[in-house]
Write a structure and sequence with these properties.
about 300 residues; binds S-adenosylmethionine; TIM Barrel; binds iron/sulfur cluster; binds 6-(5-methyl-2-OXO-imidazolidin-4-yl)-hexanoic acid; alpha/beta
Length: about 300
């Protein structure tokens, strides 16, 4: 039976101890609660993106201090992937500040990057924006493990945050990725001034995908100077925990990734997120353009008696 938005809301709004207990229980039924997947990001093309996403430091619509560069070489990506593998990462994720890939040499180069990452024995994930079916098919042929394409927020709130594309465009790309036989990584961002109902709407939209995404990144907005969301109200940590726990309960077998925003979180909050069902993180000292805990993660996992997958 497909889950309704009312079901999702009822879970999200359970008394907190009940919600966490249920999520932790379901988590243990489907996953080893001591294991965390470690993914490392590489920003292969930075800044000057034509899209108007109000959270994003890489949008050309806003004046930010982001370092801009064109598409990296296959050699640069290979070196970064090797280093990430030595640091314990099992998945290497490439992000490009594009609305979508053009059918040109740049796309061919990304295909070569994917083949290279796979030849190093790592899982490969890319996030390149909107895709046509033939592009998804070619990514699959290159051996891509997962495609990241976030729904980002609820269908109702989407147009407040992004004006240059629609929620339905994102759903179409996810469908193309599915049809190509690539696993789906899709989640969203909290802390963008959305309501609790929007957070529920996002989680419900993700869970209603058939099948739900294999990976669900929950990003806490990194407020970047120059973006319209620079001064957004920080999200209540209890809401983050409700999001993680609800994602775990709605998508029991998926990986739930505690994604952007960990730099501003205490160790206790991150530990609590793992208890509530998060079992994946981005490692390294940089996300795409903003800082990430880096070496601190080794200490955190050791202190918690947890291990990388
Ligand atoms: N351009 C492609 C796209 O938008 O699909 C791929 C790269 S884009 C930077 C990938 C994701 O990063 C976005 O969907 C968004 O969820 C996340 N993101 C971007 N800026 C962020 C921020 N300041 N805080 C948290 N997450 C952010
Ligand atoms: C995702 O959900 N989060 C990552 C990855 N997918 C591409 C990106 C986070 C970006 C945070 C802001 C930045 O570093 O630019
Ligand atoms: Fe471009 Fe992606 Fe940033 Fe939007 S989120 S501005 S599409 S890089």
């Amino acid at each position: 039976m497909p889950v309704t938005r009312q079901d999702a809301a009822a879970i999200y709004r359970l008394p907190f101890p009940e919600l966490i207990y249920r999520a932790a229980t379901v988590h243990r039924e489907h996953h080893n609660p001591l294991e965390v997947q470690m993914c490392q990001l590489e920003n292969i093309k930075s800044g000057r993106c034509q899209e108007d996403c109000k959270y994003c430091p890489q949008s050309a619509h806003y004046e930010t201090e982001v370092v801009e560069y064109g598409l990296e070489t296959v050699e640069q990506v290979a070196a970064a992937a090797r280093e990430a593998r030595e640091g314990g990462a099992s998945r290497f994720c490439l992000g490009a500040a594009w609305r979508g890939p053009r059918q040109d040499g740049d796309f061919e180069r990304v295909l070569e990057m994917i083949r290279t990452i796979r030849s190093l024995g790592m899982e490969a994930c890319v996030t390149l924006g909107l895709l046509e079916q033939d592009q998804a098919d070619r990514l699959a042929e290159a051996g891509l493990t997962a495609y990241n394409h976030n729904l980002d927020t609820s269908p109702e709130y989407y147009s407040q945050i992004i004006t240059t594309r629609q929620f339905e465009d994102r759903l179409r790309t996810i469908e193309a990725v599915r049809r190509a036989g690539i696993t789906v990584c899709s989640g969203g961002i909290i802390g963008m001034g959305e309501s609790q109902d929007d957070r529920i709407g996002l989680l419900h939209s993700l869970a209603a995908l058939d099948p739900p995404p294999e990976s669900v990144p929950i990003n806490v907005l990194v407020r970047v100077k120059g973006t319209p969301l620079e001064h957004a109200e920080p999200v209540d940590p209890l809401e983050l925990l409700r999001c993680i726990a609800t994602a775990r309960l709605l998508m029991p077998t998926s990986r739930v990734r505690l994604s952007a925003g960990r730099q501003g979180m205490s160790r206790e909050l991150q530990a609590f997120c793992f208890i509530a069902g998060a079992n994946s993180i981005f490692t390294g000292d940089k996300l795409l353009t903003t800082p990430n805990p880096g070496e601190g993660d080794r200490e955190l996992l050791a202190a918690l008696g947890m291990v990388g997958e």
